[in-house]
Prior knowledge:
This protein is 6% helix and 52% strand. It is mainly β.
Amino acid sequence: xxxxxxxxxxxxxxxxxxxxxxxxxxxxxxxxxxxxxxxxxxxxxxxxxxxxxxxxxxxxxxxxxxxxxxxxxxxxxxxxxxxxxxxxxxxxxxxxxxxxxxxxxxxx
Length: 108
């Protein structure tokens, strides 16, 4: 299990990723060629994966995304140390917080 700021990255079995990703679609890479796991609303900084792979995102931001790294990759962010991930499938979960009457994603 890996954490970088408000992003949790959990290794999962391929069959679980494929079954859970039925309602997802591949996310586009940003202008720098990265797969963005979470974009900072206040700073514009991003938790992003550098290297080959695919991010499957659900249209509902409260649901997890799924990341496939066929040869491993690195999660980078301007304010955190980089994290090296081995090859495999991962569930990517954004941290949430409760505010009176609602649950929302943590904003950074």
